[in-house]
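Researcher: Next entry in the queue.
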Amino acid sequence: MRKLLVSSMLTIILFSLQAQTWMIYNMDNSVLPSDQVKAILCDKENRVWMATSNGLVMKSNDNWHVYTTEHELPDNSINSLFAENSNSVTKIWISTKKGASCVSIQEDFGIEVSTFSTSNSGIGSDSIWLASVDNNSANWFAHGQGISGFNSEDWYLKVNSNNESNLTKVSSIASFPDGWNLFGTRGTGVARLKMGVDGISGASSYVVDYTGLWSDNIYSIFIDRLGNQWFGTDKGTSYHVGFETKEGWDEPALRRSTHQVSDTVYAIRQDKQERIWLATPTGAVVYANQTLYTFTIAEGLPDNAINDISFDNAGNIWLATNKGIASAGIDELLTGVTPLRPEARRGGIEKVYPTVANYLVNIVFSVAPNSEKVVLQVYNLNGQLIQTLFSGSLPEGSYTKSWNCSNNQGSKVQKGMYSILLRSAKGIDTQKIIVN
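Model: Structure for this entry, 436 residues:
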């Protein structure tokens, strides 16, 4: 029997805002080589990248650039985009039916392309649907053969996780700060995988039978800044806090039957004001303060079917559709909509600092109201648990715990980088520390 844990029901009202001024880009007024834009991404340099069916497009201020096979891309039809920030340089990963490529922009707006295919790597297939890099710097590629992982030295292929998730139909990937990853599939729920020194390891999957997922057909996954997880399915959007498989499935559950939101969600994103945006076949939806606001053709969009969403550093939202790109200032769109209250956010790790003389690491963290169980742990960069510093209930407030740089067996750890991880019913927070 399906088990859905709900702590409270939220009253959600759906609003359609008055028509706003959207800037529309298509083949008629820009250099877009196709109106079908499958994915869109704004990088930290405020460049806008667009994956089209006929080339990769980059917009920098008023300058537009189109990159195709003439620029050494493996194929002109781009399936997905992912930004990797490494050494202050942004690298854009693209996936195509002829391999995956890492694209670096040059000073003259040319690009340097490194392509991975079956002819030069262990990627497993040339037809790549998704390419990403997790928070442990491991590369992941989803394709028809399963999931391929690369840890800078070795390639690994994973087809099934605990015989529960068929990874040959992966549609979305999201990464936790500690390096664990969620892989959404079409038909078999969500697999949880991590890259270690010996390859790919897994944890129990999320499936409808014992979670709050509305469907095992997963179209999108998003992990917000608090570590909470949003799952877009073909039967509604599910919400999960924490890392326990059967616990933490909470409201809001956004479904057409209750909130008039399209049950199918192609992408989920969060803006700087903590508002959640959904890309659906019937428009763009923003969830703010228990209220839903929608944007459709009636509000000036070129198409109701939204494929992807991104935000630039100037406060603009960018929407990818099959009839071009739409962009507008978020503040103008949501005039009168109150942003989330800062005090509504949960506690987290506030400060981590070493005491060299005592070989201790001091961790200052806060606990929000109604956090229930709190777990404070230390992990190495391979995802292995080093020591549990605290596990239990704490009232609201600020606390300091010390780590003596040893593991659970009492042995001192080796020099290197470690992750401090705080879990509560309200989310996950991590911070890294170097032990010298």
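Model: DSSP finds two helices and 38 strands in the chain.
Researcher: Noted, moving on.
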